[in-house]
Amino acid sequence: MVKQRTNTYNKIEKEENTLNKFIKSMAVTATASTLLLASSAMAFEQKIAVVNVQEAINQIPQSAALMQSLEAEFKDEKAVIEQLQKDLTFEDENLKRNGSLMSEKEKKDLQAKMANLYQQYQAKVKEFQQKVAQRKNLETNKLFALVTQAVDNIAAKEEYDLILSKQAVVFSKPAINITSKVVEQVSKLK
Description:
By secondary structure, the chain is mainly alpha-helical. It has helices at residues 2-43, 53-59, 61-73, 75-98, 104-157, 179-188, and strands at 48-51, 162-165.
């Protein structure tokens, strides 16, 4: 019985040795692979940069000009909405102030007028927001095209292999951020 247990222990010990040798060989193989990949990566270094496109769009002077242009374009519609809002506020205050002195018919007429004003107000606001959003998207796409063109020019001029969006990168050194160069180049365009 003791001899049989000794044989079993010897078999287990041999299997452990074989397993240990296999693990060591795998570790050596993994280390060698890593070294090989690292050396090939060093042999082929890429020039990489990041750019924050949204920040660039916000910083260029064309963006401020766009906002002024949109303000001017929609100032009349905005004034109409503001007037409707003032009218609603006035009528609401009138109802609160003089409601107790009004007949039921006068109250109902005033409430109907206020409901009509409110419907007009809501329709105008919705239409206004849609128009502004549509124009802003159109103009922002033009600014995006300018920024993209600047990125392409900088990539060609400075021979970058890869330029990533800052939003897609978890970490990057400030030295590889070319956002300020993009802003500078787009700012020169008028």
